[in-house]
Amino acid sequence: MAIDFTLEPELAELRDRTAEFVRATVLPAEADLLQGPGTPDDALRRTLQQAARDAGVFAPTVPKDLGGLGLDLRGQSVVLEKAGYSLLGPLALHCAAPDEGNMLLLEKVAGTAQRDHFLEPLAAGDVRSCFAMTEPSPGAGSDPSQLATVARRVDGGWVLDGRKWFITGADGAAFAIVMARTSTGTGLEATMFLVPADIPGFRIVRHVPSLDQGFTGGHAEVELDGCEVGDEAVLGEVGKGFAYAQVRLAPARLTHCMRWLGLARRAHDLALGYAAERTAFGSRLGELGMVQQQLADNEIDLAASRALIREAAWTLDQGRSGKHESSVTKTFTSEAVGRIVDRAIQVCGALGISGDLPLSAYLREVRPFRIYDGPSETHRWSIARRALRTIQGAGR
Fold first, then answer.
1. Alpha-carbon span 136 to 309, nearest angstrom
2. Full DSSP string of 90-149
3. Mean pLDDT of 102-107
4. Region 109-136: what's the mean pLDDT?
5. Residue 65's CB: how many other CB atoms inside 10 A?
6. Which residues neighbour 21 within 8 Å (Cβ) at sequence distance 6 or greater?
7. Do 62 and 70 contact (CB within 8 A), yes or no?
8. Residue 256 CB neighbour total at 10 angstroms
9. For 50-68, what is the mean pLDDT?
10. Which helix (H) or strand (E) holds 276?
């Protein structure tokens, strides 16, 4: 089996151009943000995205016919890691969650009119979106079968009632992709709806305070109270909401890993720079064995995460489901980036937890990744069940 990680010249050039753009334009903006409000607003988003357009690095995940660079997942794994070197890099390149996953879903499922009205302005960066699935207890969280939001058929459309919780980017989004129960019997059937955020019955109740602050629009609780939409609001087909969610989930988990790996690389670079210069006990920190162990373990986690990401990207690019590969990659990488940032803080000591370096902000941002897009426990449960089925199938 041939193994060749050589990048095409065009991809290598885009990688380098992205890295330079992030260093020259985005990192200074990140420094200003962390010394100020901490959460990027739409004005900053528009400024950075225009700079990305000017640099030729805008929308790497968006198909070319929609104005993007049209990279496959293997190409995205190279470029999104470089974008993730700053908290603001994915936002600048228009490959940040939740818009990145929503664009993928719409590109695969939306009808012609829906593409014109929702996908095209989203792909251009003219608007933002959100994905409204998670609900407060006892509604849907890690277990989608607990979906409580309902959609009732009425003449010419549907009425949605329910409450969504921790909806990233909801404040300021032009529309939401809402998952609602449409079954009338005992079985569970769900449908996705494209809901403009400015229609009656769609209301942001509050901002949910959170450990992380890096998402434009924050995380919100949303109420759907007699929210009426037409039949044209149904995304795809009625009853196929859970199937469509799988279209989005595996690639979106993977692109999360790509972005956060870039931030972990940045944290490690800061630790390396500090260890190479700071002296203690008659030598540089980088010459002390216990510090070297922390740095070496970071290198190992970076390399292992990158290898898993590339394998999962290749699997998905072959048209396979990639459920197993994306679960393994998401579980390992989400925990690895947390370890890397934590070790970087430890190496840097008091400087690491101060506001003079961005490491404490990085730690706040990466910790929720072990929960977003499925907590590690749920992924491990799925991984183990698939492994057991393989053994049981072989036994038969």
1. 32
2. HHHHT--TTHHHHHHHHHHH--HHHIIIIIHHHHTTSS-EEEE---STTS-SS-GGG---
3. 98
4. 98
5. 9
6. 51, 52, 55, 57, 92
7. yes
8. 26
9. 98
10. helix 241-277
What is the rounded CA–CA span in Å between residue 305 and residue 78?
13
- What is the enclosing helix (H) or strand (E) of 284? strand 283-284
- For the record, the structure tokens of 148 come out as 């409580």
**Tokens representing 360?**
């404490």
**Residue 338 DSSP symbol:** H
pLDDT in tens, 16-25: 999 999 999 9
SS3 call for 204: strand
Residue 396 is predicted with a pLDDT of 42
pTM of the model: 0.96
> Which own/partner pairs from 281-288 qualify as long-range (CB within 8 Å, at least 24 positions apart)?
285/347
The span from the CA of 87 to the CA of 91, in Å, is 8
Using left for φ > 0, alpha for ψ between -120 and 50, and beta otherwise, residue 373 falls in: left
Q: What pLDDT does residue 228 have?
A: 98
